[in-house]
């Protein structure tokens, strides 16, 4: 009798978990990769906290925090070694967590007053070399500078970035790569000798497709943030969570196998339906407002519940985003620093409490 009960409990547990996975295929977390000195507590966090919450997707924002052999000149100090990454791969495999690395491509090649490694080492790739970095960054500014971009039409830029992409994907043993591509304010600049006068939507779409096609050759999927594919004026979403420089029409030009990470932080905007109806798979991404994360989860479940058989699988799930950095988040999560009711750790806990109901 005890054996029968045990088998019954095991089966119901497995079936219950399988059903949960069917409801939302992606139960994700996106966070910066730790540096080499803080790897062990991060692995412990994966082993204990992500696994217990049934997180099945981990996007790690690596950028130049890896000891690249193909382009060693682009490494950060104290970057992760291949052996470090193998530890991350091992713990994720142990818990059936899909591990996806991110390197920001196209945009986010600078931050505040600091140039990123790519444009620092290869200044010829700069889309707007005439825009000088300020000593003290302020927004708004006369140059419209938020973050620098590389020129997607520079003849040598993809030789460099694809070396990085291939090496990081091999190291992470992954079948997907996140290219960022959010908040691209500089594209098709009027002073760029290659891009001036060209359609910004086509420039953006061509860059997305170029990266996607490169990944497909090795059976890998491209993930990107979705904000540049939304019309900021028509929707009222504005220039951060949507586009005000006419890249939004690229939504009809990009490959349909690209995964869209649809982030909205101030309101639970329901743009996942828009992406699904455009034929694109979509993941909804909250940040630090627990009520929004719960509302977004329920919206996504409702969308799947009432969707046609063609639309339903495009609503892929939820992914918590963390922008404070891995060490800062873990301090907050474990109570080593104060966390308010609207914080990354509070939102993370609320989201996965809702998903695990």
From TrEMBL:
Q: Which GO BP terms sit in this record?
A: carbohydrate metabolic process; glycosaminoglycan metabolic process
One Pfam family assigned to this protein is: Glyco_hydro_20
Q: What class of enzyme is it?
A: hydrolase
| Gene Ontology, cellular component aspect | membrane
Q: Which domain of life is it from?
A: Bacteria
Establish whether keyword Hydrolase is in the entry: yes
User: Active-site residues?
Assistant: 183
Transmembrane portions of the chain: none
Q: Report the residue ranges that make up the Glycoside hydrolase family 20 catalytic domain in this protein.
A: 71-286
Q: Which InterPro entries match?
A: Beta_hexosaminidase_sua/sub (IPR025705), GH (IPR017853), Glyco_hydro_20_cat (IPR015883)
Query: A Gene Ontology molecular-function term?
Result: beta-N-acetylhexosaminidase activity
Reactions the enzyme catalyzes: Hydrolysis of terminal non-reducing N-acetyl-D-hexosamine residues in N-acetyl-beta-D-hexosaminides
| Keywords, in A-Z order | Hydrolase
Q: What EC number is given for this enzyme?
A: 3.2.1.52
* UniProt-listed SUPFAM superfamilies: (Trans)glycosidases
Its family? Belongs to the glycosyl hydrolase 20 family.
Its recorded name reads beta-N-acetylhexosaminidase
- The organism encoding this protein is Pedobacter psychroterrae
